[in-house]
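hey can u check if this looks right to u? its 212 residues, i copy pasted from the old doc so theres a chance i mangled smth
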Amino acid sequence: MKVQALTALLFLLIAANEAKTMERCELAKTLKSHGMDGFKGYKLGDWVCMAQHESSYNTKAVGPPNKDGSRDYGIFQINSRYWCTDGKHPSKNVCKKPCSSFTNDDIKDDIVCAKTIVQGSQGMDAWVGWKNHCKGKDLSQYTRGCKLPLGNREEGALAPLVEEEGKIVLILFQNELLITSLDDFSEEFMDNRFAIGYSSELETLHSEEVRF
């Protein structure tokens, strides 16, 4: 029994070390790189806002038991009755994953499951946190200042530039392509970080497709 208890404690410690609370912009960049910006009509701000209100960006979050005995897991609080299995209660396990796989700091499988969930009839209404706190609201604050890379670069696919009044500003900074609309281009970008980019690496383009 003592050996079993020590083994169980070791697994808990390992799980805790593999999980973390993500920074807002860190999550936004991760989601964008996995094609979540615009997926099924939902913007990046929708996903970041949902994660804040569901888990406070905590990758190891496990919610309290629901009325049906199920629980919600991970940064997106994925439910064990429908989407994953906890090994204890009946589950449809639509995402074909153990719920424990959603409680570490690698959120790629969380994202894959979230894509499955949002394609259902409820869309993002499946997340109460999004429905109550994000739906229909200005969510620009959730991606503001994040200096996101251009396009959804998932699997090297062609990523269309988003056209804003026919023009886009591209800034190359530390070998990463950043984007802002012309309307947003202001003195906030004219600091030391962007001085070189402004003088030599700045381009204004019409909307086209770019391969990453």
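The beta strands are 72-73, 78-79, 158-160, 168-173, 176-180, 203-205, 209-211.
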